[in-house]
């Protein structure tokens, strides 16, 4: 355990990338998810079709493939560079890939939340003369969000764990699981304590998240 | 909420129709621009482009670019399919099927173990489930691969005594993780059977084991089937993580092919299509099962939500697994009886 603890700065560095990936991807996938949901229920057939195709397509593709596509395909093809250093560059590509993937699950959760809103709410809003956008913004989305706090929490936890896939070839973000693998391979610390240490790190991130969202979902639940 | 009878908007009048046309045109324009950027980017990288944007040379198919016919041609040759795709698909399906069977067994043992009345079964089972649900699958796979080193470091067993193949590591990881999620699904499903069922069974003198296997599980299983199948879709998708540990599954075959033919984009597209087709087919099975259950309406248990998260989320982890039993809004496609009037 001492050998592991003497390398604690590497562990902390790994988790700092994990947390950064999680927070930024969560932000972007939330925004994109709301947009996709709005498109999915909109009166314009083309928008509905696009959103459905995107969600069903990406959702059924393995995350590894999505991130590989970002790392090997888009990165070199579009030649977009976000920063001078490779580390920052691949980090942003990983954020894009993770957001593109996670937004599908955000959208699916929100859509199931919309399905639980009593028809009367929407009918009342419409009979008051609210337009579709007003209806969505003031009546539907706020209620749907409050209903799906629990599932959204699960999506966030899944995202936290999925950031480990950003260590895939073509990206190679130095996040926690990659640091763990490097420490295994370089033999700086015994494998078992290293694994336990990193596992505890992830549990520290995910378990409180689960409890927090469980508490929050009860707190904000819509009373009907 | 289907498109035709959506309550979110009225049947469009003249002005709304005009507005919809404007939105449609705008979306088409955006999509065209997006597709054009992708087309040009994969034709020759955007940085390499010489000459003005609107010239025939810029838009012509670059013979070295990803859209050239010869980059797609490998997929018309049978040896590509027999040499790369089919073996990869076989490995993916082998890993996924083995892990599915093992995960269901793991889930049954730990899901039921977690409801035991003996604390020394209940507590360890709960700890195992929470542990494997809370850590990333990839870490589990890495650790399993490193087991010979652990044996050497911790127990002085010389390396080379045993080896862990990539297949074994992937199957172990998939089993432990998805088994833990399934354990929560089973627990939620069994808890969703009305209490009176177990009480009645015990009143007629059945033991707890009999009650569990003859009364609770048969009733819960139909309600749980859609959630189980949805989790198997997740498992199949996660088997692509084997790529990272050089397990020759479908994704790895396609990257090998892409390296040989230098056709990354065609390979990525066709690989994605194969995964999407398989997963959509499996999802259809889940929806069909759910509809069938709703139609038969025999089980007294409420449908189980997918591990506390929307269908297809590849890692589910509410700390409070029983929340899944409280039927949060899930499975929008066939939620049958749960929709509000």
From TrEMBL, chain A:
SUPFAM superfamilies: MetI-like (SSF161098). One of its GO terms (biological process) is amino acid transport. It is found in: Cell membrane. Keywords: Amino-acid transport, Cell membrane, Membrane, Transmembrane, Transmembrane helix, Transport. This is Amino acid ABC transporter membrane protein 1, PAAT family. Pfam families: BPD_transp_1 (PF00528). It comes from Nocardiopsis flavescens. Residues 15-213 form the ABC transmembrane type-1 domain. The chain crosses the membrane at residues 20-39, 60-78, 90-107, 188-214. Gene3D superfamilies: MetI-like (1.10.3720.10). One of its GO terms (molecular function) is transmembrane transporter activity. It is a multi-pass membrane protein.
From TrEMBL, chain B:
Residues 89-286 form the ABC transmembrane type-1 domain. GO terms for molecular function: transmembrane transporter activity. Pfam families: BPD_transp_1. It is a multi-pass membrane protein. InterPro entries: AA_ABC_transptr_permease_3TM, ArtM/GltK/GlnP/TcyL/YhdX-like, MetI-like, MetI-like_sf. Residues 299-341 are annotated as: Disordered. Residues 311-327 have a biased composition (Low complexity). The chain crosses the membrane at residues 21-42, 93-113, 134-155, 161-177, 215-236, 264-289. One of its GO terms (cellular component) is ATP-binding cassette (ABC) transporter complex. Its main location: membrane. GO terms for biological process: amino acid transport. Keywords: Cell membrane, Membrane, Transmembrane, Transmembrane helix, Transport. It is found in: Cell membrane. SUPFAM superfamilies: MetI-like. Belongs to the binding-protein-dependent transport system permease family. PANTHER family: AMINO ACID ABC TRANSPORTER PERMEASE (PTHR30614:SF21), MEMBRANE COMPONENT OF AMINO ACID ABC TRANSPORTER (PTHR30614). This is Glutamate transport system permease protein. It comes from Nocardiopsis flavescens.
